[in-house]
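Z., the sequence and structure:
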Amino acid sequence: MMEFILLRFSDIPNFQWILLGIFLVLYLTIMMCNSVIVLIKRIDPTLQTPVYFFLNNFSIVEICYVTVTIPRMLTDLLRQKGHISFIACATQTCLVLLFGGLECLLLAVMVYDRYMAICNPLHYGLILSSQVCVQLVIASWVSGVPVVTGQTWQVFSLPFCVSTTINHFFCDLSLVFKLACGDAFTNKTAVCGVAVVFIMVPFLLTVVSYGKNITNILKSPSARGRAKAFSTCSSNLTVVVLFYGTASTTCLQPKQNPSEETGKLISLFCTAWIPKLNPIIFTLKKKHH
C-alpha cells in the first residue's frame, strides 16, 4: 500500500470553499498571534524572565503543531483531493504526536514555574535560573523524539488491509490502527503506555501543583495578595483546563459506537481553536497584570 485517502469534510461538498476560507483565516491568525509573542519576547528586555521564556517556547510548539496539519488540509480542500502517501502519513502522525506531547510537557513546566513563584517566591530566581530553564525546555523537546519515532515505526510497520480510507483531515493514529490487519494489541498497549507518560503524568503533576498553589493562596491574610496570586496563574490554569478538557472529551467518547464525526470536530477544536485562544488568553492576562 502506497497511499491513504483522507475524507476530510467530504460529507459537506457544497461548503468546501467556505471551509477553505475559514481555516485559512484561522491558520493565519494562529501564526500571527504566536509569532507576535515570540517576537516581543526577543525584543523586550523586561520580558527576559522564566515565565516568558516558557511561553515563548510554548508558542513555537503551537506554530509547529498547526503547521503539521492545517496547511495540508488547506491544500487538499483547494485541490479537492485527499490522497496522502504512506510516508507522508507516517511523518504527519509522528509530528502530531511529538508536538502534542511537547505541549503536555511544556504545560507541566509552566505549571511548575507558577508553583515556584507562589509557593517558594524567595528562592524562585535561584531555582529557576536561566540555565535550569533552558535545561527544562531541552529535556521536553528531546525526551519525546525517540519515543514518538519508535511508536510511529511500530504502527506503520503493521500489515494494512484493503481499505485505505481515513475519515479525518489528517492521519489520526487511532484511525490508522483501524486499517491494520491482524492483532495490534501489543502496539495499542505501547501507545497507551506512552500516553500515560506524556499526558497523565504531567496532568497529575499539574493537579498536585495547583492544589498546593490554591492552598498557599488561601492562607494569605491579604485579600489583595490573594487576588494578585490568583492573577499570576489564572491564564496558565485556563489553558490547562482547555487542553486537558478537550483531550479527556476525546478519550471518553463511547467505545461501543464511537462517532468519527465527533472525533473530527474535537480534533479540529484542538488543532485550530485552542492554538488561537492560547496566545489571546496569555497576552490579555499579562496586559492586565
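Confidence is low (pLDDT under 50) at residues 254-258. The two ends are 55 Å apart (CA to CA).

Let me know what you think.
H.
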